Amino acid sequence: MAEYATKSETCEFQKPVSRTYAKREDDTFKAGARVDGDLNRSLIAARAQAGMKVTDWGATIGAGAECHFFQVTFSKHIDVGTRILGADAVAYVGVDLEGLVEEGSVIGAEARARATLGEIKAGPLHAHFGIGASAAAKVEGGALEIKIFGCGLTVGKRIGLSVFDNTVSVESAALVGKKWLW
User: Fold this and answer.
1) Cα–Cα dist 165/142, whole Å
2) Which distant-in-sequence residues (6+ apart) come within 8 Å of 97 by Cβ?
3) d(CA 179, CA 182)
4) 178: exposed, middle or buried (C-beta count within 10 Å: 0-12, 13-18, 19+)?
5) How many Å separate Cα 48 from the centre of its chain?
């Protein structure tokens, strides 16, 4: 839940001069703010959300918040996002079979609190460096993730390793040449 803002959430700022947003979307409340930024960059960015997602196949309920200094996202050939110095906390639980294929729908649970020194997403690659304590036993977006005290594995659509919430992962399709950087 408390991950990079999606393109639609980024657009919730509505205009490049807008600095805050608050809205209710179905059964979810969302709020965010940024300092000195636009839709692609922010000196300081914060957002929070809490609520429930109900689908035809189940439900997920949770809450999360994050704040980061210096956040940049852009898209030319690939989607790239980076954040420096921040923190996030999230907790959610779900029994939703869409978790087998969709991000944001979960079978299982996760609780996470971490501090970020740096984080980057570039196409199929994701790396987070910092420290944290998380516990997870979930299937989300077609990947099984098992973690305790921030240490664990992710296998499935994503393959990754996490040590005290220092994480490196890649989309498994990228390893066999599908959906690579371009």
Assistant:
1) 20
2) 57, 58, 105, 107
3) 7
4) exposed
5) 12
Residue 15 above 60 pLDDT? no
Asked if the model's pLDDT at residue 47 lies above 80, the reply is: yes
* Between residues 35 and 100, the one the model is more confident about: 100
> Are the C-beta atoms of 133 and 93 separated by less than 8 Å?
no
Supply the pLDDT for residue 168. 97
pLDDT digits (tens, 9 = 90+) for 97-114: 998 988 888 999 999 999
Evaluate whether 25 touches 12 at the Cβ level (below 8 Å). no
Burial code (b: 16+ CB inside 10 Å, e: under 16) for 127-163 equals bbebebebebebbbbebbbebeebebebeebbbbebe
Report the predicted TM-score, pTM, of the whole model to 2 decimal places. 0.78
